[in-house]
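Dear colleague,

Following up on yesterday's call, I've attached the two folding results inline so they're easy to grep. Please treat them as preliminary; we haven't cross-checked anything against experimental data yet. The first protein's sequence and structure tokens come first.
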Amino acid sequence: MSQKELEEIRKKRLQQMKSKYSPQSSQEMQKKQQQMEIQRQSALSQLMTVEARERLKRIGLVKPEKVRSIENRIIQMARMYQGRKITENELITILEQLAEKETKVTIQRRNWDLSDSDDEL
């Protein structure tokens, strides 16, 4: 095989791989993400009482990054305990469990005597 033939084969193969693994258009991906989010919210509304949903919304105002992990935990719990809704007290328990898992950093400051010995003379 000549160098040109090898190069053509490589280009064809690269195009095949790109077409096979290329992401869908951004509009299609956004639509799918929106549909998934709608389904997720629908499932959560069926799994949680009104009070628990309100509490979760308030948490989302303060710490939006934690809401997703809490929602995931609720969905997992629903798979195990089918047929009942998560109450506000159960949501509080979930929050406490997540708070225990977080690592807490404490900083201890020490007072150093930075006065110069020359000042005392």
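Below is the second protein, in the same order (sequence, then structure):
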Amino acid sequence: MEQAELTTEQVGERDIPWETYMMTKLISGTDLQLLRRYDNRPESYRAQLLDDDGPAYVRVFVTILRDIFKEETVEYVLALIDEMLTANPKRARLFHDKSLANDDPYEPFLS
């Protein structure tokens, strides 16, 4: 199967080495905690996390897309964002949160 044929579900089944990214300082300890809380959880659990602290999760996703270039990881985070927005398109507002004011949340999507 070619890479272009992977579904969001298949990409979402990947095991991403988040601890390795933290040890190499590509993500922070806080980012790792958020990812562990979110990763491989049911949609209902993720929805509650996004309702409680959505901007923090978007900030982590944008940081990963900006700083990590491994294709499998980028695809995985894009799949997480796709699932998040597909489940509730109003979550797009999380990308406009004031906590992201110092970053352009759309810049990683353009590269």
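For the second protein, one point worth flagging: Helices lie at 8-12, 18-23, 29-38, 43-67, 71-87, 107-110.

Best wishes,
A.L.
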